[in-house]
Amino acid sequence: MNQSPFLTSACRSCRHFTPEGRRGGTCQQLGVPVQASWKACALAVPVFSASWDQLQRIEHWEQALSTLVLSQELDQEIQEIKDLPNLEINVAQSLIA
User: According to a count of CB atoms within 10 Å of the terminal CB, is the N or C end of the chain lower?
Assistant: First the structure.
C-alpha cells in the first residue's frame, strides 16, 4: 500500500497556517482564508520539517509540471497531424473551384 509523503493532515498543522479568530486562519502559501480543520493540501509543510524536505517536494512538482506540459504539447501536435489531411482536402477543393 502506498503511503502519502505528506505528514501534515490538517491546515492547523501546516507551517504556512496563521491562526485568526476561533477556528479559522490564513494560508500564507496561497494567501487565502482557511479553516484549521480542513484537510491539508499538497503544498502543506509540517511545522518542524527540515528545509531539504521542501526542496525535494518542489523538485517533484517541477518534474510533474514539466511532464504535464510536454504531454499537452504532444497532444496538440498529434491533433494538428490528425487535422492535416482535412486541411489538404480543403486546399485542393478551393484550388479546383
Answer: N
